[in-house]
């Protein structure tokens, strides 16, 4: 099971192994077109720092202060959850 990726066909043999493989789930990279605006905003408020670090462009042009505050509250609650702290 952990080696499922080895059977995937290579899309571009000139690329490094992790980038040459086809997507595991077709359409998994279309979240911007499949989510409504408020959901995109909430998602980017929660994980925008990671998207930025990985070089993904933002779909939301400007995050509302309410979305940023809600994301901060969720992160705070998750940081207090012992199940999250174990990982």
Please describe what this structure looks like.
With 87 residues, the chain is mostly helical. It has one domain. 53% of the residues lie in helices and 0% in strands. The chain has helices at residues 17-20, 31-34, 37-54, 65-80, 82-85. Helix 3 (37-54) packs across helix 4. It is extended. The model has no long low-confidence stretch (mean pLDDT 77).
From the structure above, extract its key features.
0% strand, mainly alpha, extended
Give a concise summary.
It is built from five helices and no strands. The chain has 87 residues and is mostly helical. The chain has one domain.
Uncertain runs with pLDDT below 50, 5 residues or more?
A: none
Distance between the termini: 22 Å
What general outline do the C-alpha atoms trace? Answer: extended
Counting DSSP H or I runs of 4 or more residues, the number of helices is 5
User: Oligomeric form of this entry?
Assistant: single chain
Radius of gyration of CA atoms, rounded to a whole number: 17 Å
- Binned strand content: under 5%
Which percent range fits the helix content?
40-55%
Number of domains: 1
The computed structural class is: mainly alpha
Could you give the order of the helices and strands? HHHHH
